[in-house]
Amino acid sequence: MAAEGLQLQWQWEQEGRGATPVLDTTQGPRKMGFTGGSRRNEVLVTQLRLGHCALGAGLWVCALAKGSSSTAMAKFQIRRYRDEDQEAVKETFTLAMSEHVPSAFLHMLRQPLVQGTLACLFCALLATSGSVLLPVLAVTLVLAGARQLVDYSFARYIEACRRRDLDRVREAYMEGTDSCFWVAESDGLVVGTVACLPSRKHTGRECLELKRMAVRRSHRGLGIAKSLCRAVAEFAREKGYRQVLLYASVVQADAQKLYEGVGYRRVGESVVPETLAKLVNFTLIEYRYTLMEGGG
């Protein structure tokens, strides 16, 4: 291995007999000093430029490997849900969904209706009061209230998911023949979840719906979500389904990239049927994955 232009700085403090090499960690991995003896005679600093140095390149690789995150080396397994996973499953899903609150709030602020309302409020208060302070305070209070409303909406959605199936995962997913729930486990900790069941929008074995996809932030980037998607696809194929469908909200940008990266196609988009969602144009994007067996 060649390390073109690699520079190593050596500092040699000649102090009589017994000089010993000491690594100077305060200057990074590029500086090494020699100390020893009872008195200092001279300091010799040389610059060595190594055009092709396999040893030097190897040292840098080792240093980078030691500095890498231990999480990146974490191993995981995908397995079916067990009853003792219930609390960890609910916690993982809650944390993953709560992360979307800031992006949902920003999405709301980008909507023309919201921007126009805030602008009208500011101008009206400025015209009537003649002071800039009052409209600024009013808009600030409105924004704070809007953020709390977004928090409340997500908390209500999470609670609804718990009541619907997460409080009774075995009954909702594990007792049926065409439904299942998986978890990703790393070092004994549940770090990801996914589920599937027959789609209510389709009859027969047309579509299986992927639900409850969640991965803890500390374990993202390891391929866990892709493995969970594959588990659902393999299950659907074994059961004879033609497609897997799922829904991702407009603010789940990372999830959209994930699904498109593993082969899902965007087939539609619809507004969530709630008053607040309609006002801020909060939409759900429908994705479908066509299995290789069973046609199109």
Automatic annotation (TrEMBL):
InterPro entries: Acyl_CoA_acyltransferase (IPR016181), GNAT_dom (IPR000182), NAT_camello-type (IPR050769). Residues 134-292 form the N-acetyltransferase domain. Keywords: Transferase. SUPFAM superfamilies: Acyl-CoA N-acyltransferases (Nat). This is N-acetyltransferase domain-containing protein. GO terms for molecular function: N-acetyltransferase activity.
